From TrEMBL:
Source species: Hymenobacter telluris
TM annotation in the entry: none
Catalytic activity line of the entry: L-methionyl-[protein] + [thioredoxin]-disulfide + H2O = L-methionyl-(R)-S-oxide-[protein] + [thioredoxin]-dithiol
The UniProt record lists the keyword Oxidoreductase: yes
Protein name per Swiss-Prot or TrEMBL: peptide-methionine (R)-S-oxide reductase
Keyword entries, A-Z: Oxidoreductase
GO biological process: protein repair; response to oxidative stress
GO terms of molecular function: peptide-methionine (R)-S-oxide reductase activity
Domain MsrB, chain residue ranges per copy: 26-148
Amino acid sequence: MLRWIDVLTYARYSNPEPPRRVNLTDQEWAAQLTPAQFRVLRQQHTEPPYRNAYCRSYEPGVYVCAGCNSPLFDSTTKYHAISGWPSFTQPLTRSAISYFFDDSHHMQRVEVRCNVCGGHLGHVFPDGPAPGGLRYCINSESIRQLPPPTDAR
Ligand SMILES: [Zn+2]
């Protein structure tokens, strides 16, 4: 389980090695993302609180990066944080997310990005629920929920 000290260590020293890397130009990203996805993932914008797709959605399933389809979060770690954005307590795997100090907007925050394509996802805060104490505050535009796997037999 990741804790705040792990987040700070990743941001300060080095992030986990990604399972693969996706490197596209801004033009290539713009061609495959919606304008709203591009603003969040590639330009670090923040979508409006509450008026976003997954704020109040608790359907079971895995959330993948809207840019590169890498698995990022599972619905079992999603919780109601009253922030206006989808919130998670843990990433799906340690190597799914990378961490960067972000001093913009006169705040000291830790930005979280997709570790595979570098897409901006949101921020992580140390005010989440026990036992991990983390709150991943994520833009809905940066993620896409896959339906739960169906039994093919
Ligand atoms: Zn990605």
